[in-house]
Fold this sequence. Notes:
This protein is α/β, with parallel strands linked by helices.
Amino acid sequence: MKKVIITGANGQLGKDLVELIDTSVFEVSAFIKSELDITNERAVQTIVNSIQPDWILHAAAYTNVEAAEDEGKEQNWLVNATGTEVIAKAAKTVNAKMIYVSTDYVFDGTKETPYETTDAVNPLNEYGKAKLAGEKAVQEVLGEDGFVIRTSWVFGIHGHNFVYTMLKLSETRNELKVVSDQLGRPTFSEDLAHFMWFIVNQNVRGGIYHFSNDDVCSWNTFAREILKEKQTVIHECTSDEFPQKALRPKHSILDLTSAKKIDYDIPTWSNALERFKNQISG
Length: 282
Ligand SMILES: NC(=O)c1ccc[n+]([C@@H]2O[C@H](COP(=O)([O-])OP(=O)(O)OC[C@H]3O[C@@H](n4cnc5c(N)ncnc54)[C@H](OP(=O)(O)O)[C@@H]3O)[C@@H](O)[C@H]2O)c1
């Protein structure tokens, strides 16, 4: 039986991966942070040696983009850059393939058309810089056995995300202001998990892929769709009205050709949101 290791198994994506994988076909070893801290090189190597995985699905990450600018700066680099390199090196020692999940924040958002996998990177914030360093480590250490999937605006059933924030706010607020000058593509973590699993099961080449749900929106449009059954009125505003420590790309639309080229059928974000809502209400 083939073997797979999942890191960060308590996160939005990690939990979806654990739920998705058919354990009658794959032997799955999923680790939450307290069981495997990816920054502990010796612990990682010991586990990888004993399991001898065919694949490592690396879902562990430091994801607090704001804190990464100051109090979480060191941890951001330790987990997203160094920790990813530790995983890649361990994968190399047992000839395992590895999927690393990266971010649209590797781009600066100045391109007016969707970002292709080959476009120049220029991260604006510490999180994007550390995730990019993780990408480089995966590619340098693993070459063709390394897969980098850049994704954006992730929302999942298990986790803290924009969709839950909007739903929560609508319980107490009649009106909300949501920025309309940042464009991107939301990603349902279940669909991302499904795409990762598709990669494991198809004999596709390593390298950089972009994956999000299809169609483009602003945070404002996304919020309107999230709350369309509620009474809350949503107003447009610009990102200048909500100053944040970490700069974000204004236009971070990922070009999805790399995923479509391997015959993956990508659902739209509104379809994904509907499935999300059905699950949380059912
Ligand atoms: N969320 C987004 O909007 C977004 C956008 C673009 C890309 N991504 C990328 O997508 C991937 C999945 O994100 P997500 O939303 O699922 O993140 P998440 O919910 O924050 O999950 C990350 C998991 O990694 C764990 N972790 C942190 N440090 C660790 C360490 N040293 N060792 C082992 N585990 C550790 C966290 O545990 P604790 O919670 O206990 O710290 C958490 O369970 C990440 O690579 C992220 O960078 C996310």
